[in-house]
Amino acid sequence: MKLDPFFTFLLGIVVTWSVYHFFYIKDRVADRQKTFAAYPRTYDVVSASALIAGACLVIQSVGRRLLQSLAEKMLPRDRWAHQVFALKQRRFSEMAFKSIYFLSLTFAAFFYLHSESWWPKLLGGRGDESELFKDYPNQESHPFTHIYFYISAGYHVACFISLLLSPKLPDFYETLLPCVCAMLLIFFSYQGNFLRVGSIILFCHDFCDIFSCGCKVFVDTRHKVVTFFLFACLVVSWGYLRLFAFPVAALFPIFKNVKSMKATADGEDWGFFVCLLLTLFVMNIYWFGLMLKMCMHFCTSGQMSDLHSPTVSEEEPSVVERRRSPRMAQASSSKSDSKKRH
């Protein structure tokens, strides 16, 4: 079933509501920035994300060239035509870069934040849920939460630019929707000083992407055992972090504290944040269903395939034509022989 109209509809709602939300809270945010010295500055996240996005695009481009030789060694060249092999090389390099990015960022996030009073026990911390919104909106957070937001914002902006510049694939809108939701959530969460709960949400999603990108690195190689191991890690981490820890450690506390926060921050449009978070959660459920479908495909066929890969012919048109030409020549010769007999 084609879900593009549904994803496009959700994307339209998200973008329209975001424009409204920006003008709805901008005066209140400006007042808080003047009143509270520790309140996050909008300029910081905008400027930092722009610089980091540019750096990500440059590093990814350089990394693609550096990893080209490794991709040539690991990918079976005789399996695809030249054009398809080039696409596989490109994806191999991009996914390798993203795997390293998510591994480094989640390690740093856990290292700096796991001992904070608000970091949840579900994620290896000792924190308490009541600390998430303590003293809000005049709330000071660990300095790394700001860095975490800057890097994440820049990365998602870079992904957004790459997505728009790349050829439009069948999964374009289902990839674009969570990318846009992530960018908007990061920006407005920083602007609203939701650094603590925002860091938890980022960690739950970034950790799973280590294995998601890792699977895409090895899926086209001959290392099927490594691919299956990473896929198993992906399913387990996705189920625990995105479908369990994300709602329990972030969504439910937000729902519980909305009333108390409204008393001190009545200028917030809480429905907007709930809408974005629920959209993200629904997409997590949808992707988990796709992963189970991939698992069933592997059990029945013994082959691991990426359901998000574009539908590309495995051979160049010229190859197909060359294979058809002997048959066509034979058919034409038989026709001419029959005509001569008559």
UniProtKB/TrEMBL annotation:
Residues 90-300 form the TLC domain. Signal peptide: none annotated. It is a multi-pass membrane protein. It comes from Toxoplasma gondii MAS. Its EC number is 2.3.1.24. GO terms for molecular function: sphingosine N-acyltransferase activity. The keyword Transmembrane helix applies. GO terms for biological process: ceramide biosynthetic process. The chain crosses the membrane at residues 7-25, 95-113, 147-165, 226-250, 270-288. It comes from the Eukaryota. PANTHER family: LD18904P (PTHR12560:SF0), LONGEVITY ASSURANCE FACTOR 1 LAG1 (PTHR12560). It is found in: Membrane. This is Longevity-assurance protein (LAG1) domain-containing protein. Pfam families: TRAM_LAG1_CLN8. Residues 305-342 are annotated as: Disordered. GO terms for cellular component: endoplasmic reticulum; membrane. Keywords: Acyltransferase, Membrane, Transferase, Transmembrane, Transmembrane helix. Its main location: membrane.
